[in-house]
């Protein structure tokens, strides 16, 4: 088991090159937000934009359009009932599921349209629907971000059995292609290429609706601009909770949108950090 550390995150987040433009930092398509759960995609998109994704488009129930534009003018908005496959084709990273509710046709269109070279982050309602409708993972680079109940539904590992690493690995090998699993809880773990990473920052100040939507948006923003995929996911997971821990010094609860606002400053700190300050020369394996 490897502790997720600032070292891992800082290794991923580098100063930007002057010869770059928005296209350099990736195109993210967020699919989610039914007529009642538009807040989820606002939190996804806010986190992706603040993480530095070059271009962010939200494909959603069109009743969410004005709210998204008002909260986040940086994001583009399209109706997820129209030409969804065309929008998917143009994306580097697709994040699907936050606040998607029971829109299974949208999910099926997405699973069919994504290509092998694309990163697909599957969150929230999409995980629940994949379990309910027995849907296969798409042939793409997949990141699953379930909370414990969602993992019980999809991985068929009872919550009480999820504390045993072997049970989760056993469930994971039955998926093709084998995804990266971000198993969220009060002690989040990342299962990545036969290695288990343990998160030990963060706390109960994060137990509020939208916290996972914000994490999913950060993973989208990080994986759009930082390569390879695995370290980018680890870095997003660490930064999400490390920012919450910093905010918790002066806040009883750390609201998802406040975490999103704090992302650029935190990333700046890590990008500027000298190697010695992060302990980049030390090994932290246990
Ligand atoms: N503003 C918005 O638009 C928001 C939109 N959202 C969107 O709503 C959709 C539904 O997501 P969801 O997570 O709220 O519901 P669901 O999948 O039914 O899971 C809840 C069930 O699981 C159980 N449970 C057990 N362990 C658990 C654990 N560790 N963490 C969490 N739950 C745990 C729990 O147990 P209970 O609390 O009842 O004891 C309950 O029975 C999803 O797409 C999401 O993105 C939300 O983000 C909120 C803000
Ligand atoms: N007690 C806690 N300690 C640390 N992190 C927590 C705690 N409770 C919740 N979280 C974090 O908050 C997020 C909750 O995700 P999720 O349940 O998907 O939220 P939502 O769907 O409402 O956005 C996860 O990242 C989880 O690790
Ligand atoms: Mg969630």
UniProtKB/TrEMBL annotation:
Alphabetized SUPFAM superfamilies for the sequence: Ribokinase-like (SSF53613)
Binding-site residues for AMP, renumbered to this chain: 184-188, 212
Protein name, UniProt field: ADP-dependent (S)-NAD(P)H-hydrate dehydratase
Pfam families, sorted: Carb_kinase
Keywords: ATP-binding, Kinase, Lyase, NAD, NADP, Nucleotide-binding, Transferase
Known function: Catalyzes the dehydration of the S-form of NAD(P)HX at the expense of ADP, which is converted to AMP. Together with NAD(P)HX epimerase, which catalyzes the epimerization of the S- and R-forms, the enzyme allows the repair of both epimers of NAD(P)HX, a damaged form of NAD(P)H that is a result of enzymatic or heat-dependent hydration.
Record PANTHER family: ATP-DEPENDENT (S)-NAD(P)H-HYDRATE DEHYDRATASE (PTHR12592:SF0), ATP-DEPENDENT (S)-NAD(P)H-HYDRATE DEHYDRATASE FAMILY MEMBER (PTHR12592)
Molecular function via GO: ADP-dependent NAD(P)H-hydrate dehydratase activity; ATP binding; kinase activity; NAD(P)HX epimerase activity
EC number: 4.2.1.136
Lineage, top ranks: Bacteria, Bacillati, Bacillota, Bacilli, Lactobacillales
Amino-acid positions noted as binding (6S)-NADPHX in the UniProt annotation, renumbered to this chain: 40, 99, 147, 213
Residue ranges that the Swiss-Prot or TrEMBL entry lists as coiled coil: none
Protein family (similarity comment): Belongs to the NnrD/CARKD family.
Domain YjeF C-terminal as annotated: residue spans: 5-270
Quaternary context: Homotetramer.
Example GO biological process: metabolite repair
Cofactors required: Mg(2+)
InterPro entries in alphabetical order: Carbohydrate_kinase_pred_CS, CARKD, Ribokinase-like
């Amino acid at each position: 088991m490897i502790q997720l550390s600032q070292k891992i995150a800082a290794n991923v987040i580098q100063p930007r090159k002057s010869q770059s433009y928005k296209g350099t930092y990736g195109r993210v398509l967020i699919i989610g937000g039914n007529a009642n759960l538009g807040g989820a995609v606002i939190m996804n998109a806010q986190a992706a934009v603040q993480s530095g994704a070059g271009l962010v488009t939200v494909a959603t129930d069109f009743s969410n359009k004005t709210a998204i534009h008002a909260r986040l003018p940086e994001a583009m908005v399209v109706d997820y009932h129209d030409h969804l496959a065309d929008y998917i084709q143009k994306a580097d990273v697709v994040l699907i599921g936050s606040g998607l509710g029971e829109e299974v046709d949208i999910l099926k269109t997405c699973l069919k349209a994504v290509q092998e070279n694309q990163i697909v982050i599957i969150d929230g309602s999409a995980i629940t629907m994949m379990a309910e409708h027995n849907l296969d993972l798409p042939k793409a680079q997949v990141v699953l971000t379930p909370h414990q109940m969602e993992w019980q539904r999809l991985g068929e590992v009872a919550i009480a059995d999820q504390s045993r690493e072997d049970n989760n690995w056993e469930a994971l090998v039955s998926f093709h292609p084998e995804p990266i699993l971000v198993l969220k809880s009060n002690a989040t773990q990342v299962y990545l290429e036969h290695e288990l990473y343990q998160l030990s920052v963060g706390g109960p100040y994060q137990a509020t609706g939208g916290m996972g939507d914000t994490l999913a948006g950060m993973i989208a923003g990080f994986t759009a601009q930082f390569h390879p995929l695995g370290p980018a996911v680890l870095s997003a997971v660490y930064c999400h909770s490390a920012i919450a821990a910093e905010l918790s010094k002066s806040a009883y609860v750390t609201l998802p949108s406040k975490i999103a606002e704090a992302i650029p400053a935190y990333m700046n700190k890590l990008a500027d950090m000298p190697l010695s300050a992060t302990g980049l020369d030390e090994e932290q394996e246990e």
